[in-house]
Design a protein that fits this description.
About 40% of the residues lie in helices and about 15% in strands. By secondary structure, the chain is of the alpha+beta class. Among the domains are: about 5-200, Aminohydrolase, N-terminal nucleophile (Ntn) domain (Glutamine Phosphoribosylpyrophosphate, subunit 1, domain 1, 4-Layer Sandwich); about 520-590; about 625-714, no CATH class. The strands form six sheets. The chain has a six-stranded antiparallel sheet. Helix 13 runs parallel beside helix 20, helix 16 (about 380-400) crosses helix 19 (about 430-445) and helix 26 (about 535-540) crosses helix 28 (about 570-585).
Length: about 725
């Protein structure tokens, strides 16, 4: 669903590409595709067409949302075509709510126009060649054309931020390969059919002009509660218009705030079915049980699927397939787990057309705060620290840090002076920088992964939090309210209390990797070993042959160093390079060579009832150490962690990597005694017995420190 591939011929050239070959290589998206063809356009995919007597043609891939818009898709396209004739394509597209690619042929003006929706949810990749223009929903389709470049654009690929870098103002729309680009959100690309010349322009800007109040925030007297009320009302409508086409609504449920509020809202409108995954992390964090509890409390269905990711990650053949399927060197874990989840849903419920997903909430609502700063003593201080980091991140984009005197003065430079150096505008509102940078990064990470996972199994991923109306709404919120609304998503969390129980509202965000079950280093070493360089050579060629960009001997030396001095970030950068090399072989793959679902489904399990017996069985099945065995293991502080006593106050803190992360409260003497007794030799049970402490007194603290890798039970 939402797949397409098109060729626009220019300068009188004829299309000679064999579309049947593309169908044969990728049967799932194209076996039942609609094909439209005329002198200048050959278009195939999940498409609708509208023709006008004046010779103009409008083609659409995607969905429109609104009153019955999903149900009457063809009628909506014909009405849109009438609006295009009246207003022009750009103005008509700006009125839409949805995820869409539009292609418009204007025979009288000898022009073709291609555009994507306001957020860029319906991704459009393109390549402009000599006498032809290619555009598609996925890069792999473009690469099948014999005249499309197939080599990596290393210069631009290595400029893109790694996913853990959550603030980056550089907008880079190069799509890994030479001369292949992602069309910018809310952008129209126009092609002159006679000359082949093309140009782009934005057709919608939520941040500037036309939005009352954006330049008059001083007169905006709204209070925090009013903004929250308006926000939640907008979210309710965003959910409502995306669940119209079936009597039942369908949604992912992770147990976090974002997916939970979508499920709760949908369940108040109609019967709702939800889907979750079970991994080591969900069992350790008890979100497996929490999803089941929420479904029971709010009266909607929940089916969970077991994904033994910890056993699959280090399979080298699977890793290559993950990179190719993701069409990205990031090969995010989400890409694989969401693909498996969509596959499991399709196998058990083949008639489900879509799922709601919570992607976009963190990026717009301040949910990435704890990836930027640690919580301070007060909410106000936390917000001040966060927005300071956001402002600093923007200045890093504008000012070269190598000029030490200039960077040393960055905290007190006037914006106009900074702009004179960089030649680019500086946001007067730091929160807009946060939103803009994360909306862009999201297009190459979570949104990228979600779309491909859904496409693979003919599902539509629907994103209520990325309803384009949120952007002007958020841009118009008075800056004086930002601290109350945006640190840790208070704009959503507080009004969500109307829908959700406290155990969801105040649930800490679960880490991707949990303490002693964080096997990333073992995975990296098994995937790429200095004594077994198969993956390296497959990605970059034989060691004795030079590579135009990468010094292979230096890379091998870095592998050896990381074996002795583990560094998660360094591993990520190294894997990024190797994955780019693997990606250069994407054009040789087809649907069958990249498929991993059939094999993995054999070790997956469907769970519809969660109870203590099921949970214990799953914990054993997922290699989680039983508590009794865990307590008999030697306990010690992890590297970089210790107890620190502050003088002269006498306050005691847990120190992690030179950061005081927790103060030990005098009201918890059992926990203090336990920590002070750790000698890196005795087990937890031995320490408890020696101190006459009941484990229940320290249980929560103990597991928190294991989860956050402050303590290690080796």
């Amino acid at each position: 669903m939402h797949s397409f591939f098109g060729i626009i011929s220019t300068r009188g050239n004829a299309n000679e590409f064999n579309f049947d070959r593309l169908k044969a290589k990728f049967p799932t998206p194209f076996n039942h595709a609609t094909v439209f063809q005329n002198k200048v356009l050959h278009l195939m995919g999940d498409l609708r067409q509208s023709l006008m007597p004046n010779g103009s043609a409008l083609y659409c891939c995607g969905e429109f949302y609104g009153a019955n818009a999903i149900l009457d898709a063809q009628k909506q396209l014909e009405l849109l075509h009438q609006r295009v004739a009246l207003l022009g394509l750009n103005a008509a597209a700006a009125e839409l709510n949805g995820r869409f690619m539009l292609c418009y042929l204007d025979a009288s003006r000898q022009k073709a126009q291609v555009l994507t929706d306001q957020i860029g949810i319906q991704q459009v990749f393109y390549h402009a060649g000599q006498g032809f223009f290619l555009f598609a929903s996925e890069i792999k389709f473009l690469l099948q054309h014999p005249r499309c470049p197939k080599t990596i654009d290393w210069k631009n690929a290595l400029r893109r931020s790694i996913p853990f870098e959550v603030l980056d103002g550089e907008k880079n729309y190069h799509a890994w390969f030479k001369d292949i680009f992602l069309l910018e959100e809310a952008t129209e690309l126009s092609i002159d059919l006679n000359t082949g010349d093309s140009n782009k322009r934005a057709y919608w800007n939520p941040y500037e002009g036309g939005h009352e109040g954006l330049t008059h925030q001083n007169g905006d007297e709204r209070r925090t509660q009013q903004v929250m009320d308006e926000y939640i009302e907008l979210l309710e409508d965003a959910v409502r218009i995306r669940i119209q086409d079936r009597e039942t609504a369908f949604s992912f449920l992770s147990g976090g705030l974002d997916s939970s509020i979508l499920c709760a809202m949908a369940a108040r409108i109609k019967p709702t079915e939800t889907f979750s995954i079970i991994t080591q992390t969900t069992l350790l964090e008890e979100t497996t049980q929490l999803c089941d509890q929420l479904a029971n409390d709010l009266h909607f269905g929940n089916t969970q699927f077991v994904v033994p990711y910890h056993r699959l990650a280090s399979d080298m053949e699977l890793w290559k397939k993950r990179v190719w399927r993701a069409e990205s060197p990031f090969a995010h874990t989400d890409s694989m787990t969401k693909t498996l989840l969509h596959d499991a849903i399709r196998r058990h419920h083949p008639d489900i057309p879509y799922t709601l997903t919570g992607t976009g909430s963190d990026q717009l609502n301040g949910g990435l705060a704890r990836w930027i700063v640690e919580d301070a003593d007060t909410h106000e201080e936390s917000w001040k620290n966060m927005i300071g980091k956001v402002s600093e991140a923007e200045l890093r984009h504008h000012l070269p840090e190598r000029l030490h005197a200039l960077w040393g003065a960055h905290r007190f430079l006037q914006h106009d002076f900074v702009e004179s150096i960089s030649g680019q505008s500086v946001e007067r509102n730091p929160m807009l920088y946060y939103i803009k940078s994360n909306v862009h990064i999201n297009q190459f990470v979570l949104l990228w992964d979600e779309n491909r996972a859904a496409y693979s199994h003919r599902h539509s991923a629907r994103y209520p939090f990325l309803d384009h109306r949120f952007l002007p709404f958020l841009a118009n919120i008075p800056e004086r309210l930002h601290g109350e609304l945006f640190y840790d998503k208070q704009i959503l969390r507080i009004p969500a209390a109307r829908y959700l129980p406290d155990y969801i509202l105040n649930k800490p965000k679960a880490p991707a990797n949990v303490g002693m079950y964080d096997r990333r280093l073992a995975f990296y070493n098994s995937l790429i070993n200095p004594r077994k360089l198969d993956l390296l050579e497959e990605a970059l060629g034989p060691l004795h042959e030079p590579h135009p960009v990468i010094d292979k001997m230096a890379l091998v030396a870095e592998l050896e160093r990381l074996g002795q001095q583990p560094d998660y970030k360094a591993w990520q950068y190294l894997l990024n390079v190797l994955n780019l090399g693997l990606l250069e072989k994407l054009h040789l793959q087809d649907e069958a060579s990249m498929c991993y679902e059939d094999e993995i489904q054999q070790v997956m399990e469907t769970v519809t009832t969660i109870n203590p017996t099921t949970t214990n069985r799953l914990r054993q099945q997922m290699d989680i150490v039983p508590e009794e065995a865990l307590l008999r293991r030697p306990i010690q502080f992890a590297d970089g962690c210790s107890l620190v006593t502050e003088h002269p106050s006498g306050k005691v803190y847990l120190n992690k990597n030179e950061i005081l992360v927790y103060e030990l409260d005098d009201e918890d003497p059992a926990w203090r005694s336990f920590l002070f007794a750790i000698d890196n030799k005795r087990s937890t049970m031995q320490l408890l017995e020696a101190q006459a402490i009941d484990f229940e007194q320290i249980r929560d603290y103990f597991y928190l420190c294991l989860k956050e890798a402050i303590l290690v039970a080796s």
